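Fill in residues.
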């Protein structure tokens, strides 16, 4: 149940982010659900592996390199999913940051744990 709630939260955050950032577009609205599902899977499976591999860089940058990793994963999803496009890495970086903030806010407002 927790995975489904996380998926829906990320989907809503991605949809709202596409409305705020001009470099991020979602053509059909339901594509946000696919992007949210892929982000959920990436966060569960791939991101912990990448964080372990980049631990020395994260320590040197005091954790700021994980923002770059989030932006790179967001940009990579833009190349994988049809109907979801990210124009530049800057848009991906800012979009990933806003998705993280919005998903945190949504989970706090609706008391999702």
């Amino acid at each position: 149940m927790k995975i489904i709630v996380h998926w829906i939260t990320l989907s809503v955050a991605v949809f709202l982010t596409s409305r705020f950032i001009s470099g991020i577009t979602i053509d059909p609205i339901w594509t946000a659900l696919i992007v949210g599902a892929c982000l959920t899977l990436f966060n569960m499976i791939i991101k912990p592996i990448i964080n372990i591999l980049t631990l020395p860089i994260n320590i040197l940058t005091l954790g700021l390199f994980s923002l770059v990793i989030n932006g790179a994963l967001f940009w990579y999803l833009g190349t994988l999913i049809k109907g979801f496009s990210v124009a530049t890495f800057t848009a991906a970086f800012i979009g990933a940051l806003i998705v993280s903030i919005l998903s945190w806010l949504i989970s706090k407002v609706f008391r999702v744990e």
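The chain has one domain: 2-109.
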